[in-house]
Amino acid sequence: MTTTLWTPVQVGALELPNRMVMAPMTRNRAGAGNVPTELAVEYYRQRASAGLIIGEGTQVSPQGVGYPGTPGIHTPEQIAGWRQVTDAVHAAGGRMFLQLWHCGRVSHSFFHGGELPVAPSPIAINAKTLQFRGDGGVPFEVPRPLERHEIPQVIDQFRLGAIAAQQAGFDGVEIHGAFGYLPDQFLQDGSNQRTDDYGGSIANRARFLLEIAETVIGVWGADRVGVKLSPSNTYNDMRDSNPVATFGYAIEQLNAMKLAYLHIMGASEADLRHGGNAIPLAVFRPKVTVSLIANQDYDREKAMAAVASGDADLVSFGRLFLANPDLPARFQHHAPLNLPNPATFYGGGAEGYTDYPFWQPELATASS
Ligand SMILES: Cc1cc2nc3c(=O)[nH]c(=O)nc-3n(C[C@H](O)[C@H](O)[C@H](O)COP(=O)(O)O)c2cc1C
């Protein structure tokens, strides 16, 4: 029988009713103390028909912050705020992981009381930060390289974040290993020039990510932990001298840990334009025996083809889920889709967050 987006699937410890995953998306709408608000409760509740929701990047510590208004998972208030979200998603019949995040050098001293953000090596991103104080963004600073003895402390931030995510009622966690944030900064040699056992060889550069994975598995068990990787990404000034070998190694090692899933992004149009790595997912597919979630520019047809052929076990949708709270129902009925509005992606209130209409308005409240 052909596998479709509606074929139920076992992902680690979870049985999912469909293969449409909501990709993690930063929305910069957390309240005071980086606590998720009532609006976040509503936003995620609306999207509970996803096979799995992966909550937005959520910093595991104050040191991990890189943007304004991003939620954290390191204070009692944040845990309580997230508990409201997970309760609402569960009451609506959904399942939700949280993405554990540390921005590393993708940050600014503005967020750290004047101290420099941390990174594997003192290499600045050759770009401007996003605007965070009304000045249109400023050049990234040269980050402070982590001392060797600090690295276990940073890994421990992920352990504490994983514990806090359990207290907040999530079904599991995803480690953010993508998009040039701290684990990715260690992994790729364009941002890691260390000469200790966390730099140099591929095995050394992968050590930070793999130790985080082991630590988080120690909290949750492997079958409730996923990892997101973006081998083709050039955003945040990322580069590697041999990405096929680097990511191939990381994927092999993570796969051997019997994670719930690997969430791997293909090349975006921007990656292709930058002439970056642009590696087809098929290169890594044979290495993945745990569930593979594919991501990047999937629509209904591409996603159906990917799960039917086995190129992916599940597909995650970012912008389409952002704009279509009822995406699975729309796909099922070939209904028209709302278009995402990039002007309201980051920051603001309900507009562009909780006000995208349902295709069948009666379903907007049916699950509450
Ligand atoms: C508004 C917005 C915020 C995002 N924030 C995150 C994030 O916090 N963590 C992450 O791993 N990816 C993030 N992404 C990337 C998405 O998870 C996804 O990989 C990307 O949108 C490609 O999928 P799509 O083509 O289906 O939109 C974000 C994307 C968007 C549009």
TrEMBL record:
<dbReference type="GO" id="GO:0016628">
    <property type="term" value="F:oxidoreductase activity, acting on the CH-CH group of donors, NAD or NADP as acceptor"/>
</dbReference>
<dbReference type="InterPro" id="IPR013785">
    <property type="entry name" value="Aldolase_TIM"/>
</dbReference>
<dbReference type="InterPro" id="IPR001155">
    <property type="entry name" value="OxRdtase_FMN_N"/>
</dbReference>
<feature type="domain" description="NADH:flavin oxidoreductase/NADH oxidase N-terminal">
    <location>
        <begin position="5"/>
        <end position="338"/>
    </location>
</feature>
<dbReference type="GO" id="GO:0005829">
    <property type="term" value="C:cytosol"/>
</dbReference>
<keyword id="KW-0560">Oxidoreductase</keyword>
<dbReference type="GO" id="GO:0010181">
    <property type="term" value="F:FMN binding"/>
</dbReference>
<dbReference type="InterPro" id="IPR045247">
    <property type="entry name" value="Oye-like"/>
</dbReference>
<comment type="similarity">
    <text>Belongs to the NADH:flavin oxidoreductase/NADH oxidase family.</text>
</comment>
<dbReference type="Pfam" id="PF00724">
    <property type="entry name" value="Oxidored_FMN"/>
</dbReference>
<protein>
    <recommendedName>
        <fullName>NADH:flavin oxidoreductase/NADH oxidase N-terminal domain-containing protein</fullName>
    </recommendedName>
</protein>
